[in-house]
Amino acid sequence: MTGKIQLNTEKMQAEVQTGIGWMIFNNPKRRNALSLEMWEAISAILDSFQQDNSVRVVVMKGAGDKAFVSGADISQFKENRNNAEQAEHYSNVSASARQKFTELDKPLIAMIQGYCLGGGLSVALNADIRIASSTAQLGVPAARLGIAYSYESLKQLVDLVGPSHTKEILFSARRLSATEALQIGLVNRVVPADELEDDVYKLAARIASNAPLSVTASKRTVCEILKNPSDRNLDALAEFVKICFDSKDYTEGRTAFMEKREPKFIGR
């Protein structure tokens, strides 16, 4: 599959180019704040990328240069989250999209420019790799809004930066600079704003050129390591190791190395 993916809203865009699936939060007038229809589209996009064998890595980014995602679209709260029933529906839709993030076998990169706040940071935490521009601002303003985050969202943050940094982020509700985010491990690296897209593209292209089965095995293994020991499926990981060694890509990788050329992997 190549080209743009048809969606039910213009506030999300998706396309596939040379092995890279691009998911774009396209609500720049509201600094890419997440609306209900955007959450629905996220599920559709991730389903499409997961099923498309031509997609080897996924990049998510915000339209424009002001924000990755500035949080939830509060202007929709009166219409879509005005009571417990509506709030439950909204929660179910967003939870479904978060589950799609969890099920995505392919590497996911968050390209973070500008604001990455609240629900936007929660989305970025689903990425395997977060690259931020030097002008990025990250934070969780829940304490300024009188709301609380779910166990799942906060566990992701604690797993990444530890309990002490998580508490400071939540208790203070302040915005962290990109440099601060880098220091505590919230992002992988920080690059100048005008180099962000090129830097992310080069990384995504490099990942896309590697053996898909090997990359997937690495992602699955790290995910299992992060689980409680009693929940780990080590037999499944061992089977995937066998699949990699029995694959045509393993033969291609060895052959290309001996012939001093770039390998051409097919994902089988």
Protein topology:
Blueprint: E1 3-4, E2 12-17, E3 20-25, H1 36-51, E4 57-62, E5 67-69, H2 77-80, H3 84-103, E6 108-112, E7 115-117, H4 119-124, E8 129-133, E9 137-139, H5 142-145, H6 151-161, H7 163-172, E10 176-177, H8 178-183, E11 189-191, H9 196-209, H10 212-225, H11 234-245, H12 248-258
Helix pairs in contact: 1-3, 6-7, 10-11
Features:
alpha/beta; 2-enoyl-CoA Hydratase, Chain A, domain 1; 48% helix; four-stranded mixed sheet; 268 residues; globular; single chain
Explain how this protein is built.
The structure is a single chain. This protein is of the alpha/beta class and 268 residues long. The protein has two domains: 3-208, 2-enoyl-CoA Hydratase, Chain A, domain 1 (Alpha-Beta Complex); 211-258. Helices cover 48% and strands 16% of the residues. It has twelve helices and eleven strands. The strands form two sheets. It has a seven-stranded mixed beta sheet with strand order 1-2-3-4-6-8-11, with helices on both faces. Strands 5-7-9-10 form a four-stranded mixed beta sheet. Strand 2 (12-17) and strand 3 form a beta hairpin. Helix 1 packs parallel to helix 3 (84-103), helix 6 (151-161) packs across helix 7 and helix 10 packs antiparallel against helix 11. The longest helix is centred in the middle third of the chain and has 20 residues, at 84-103. The chain starts with a strand and ends in a 10-residue tail after the last helix. The mean pLDDT is 91.
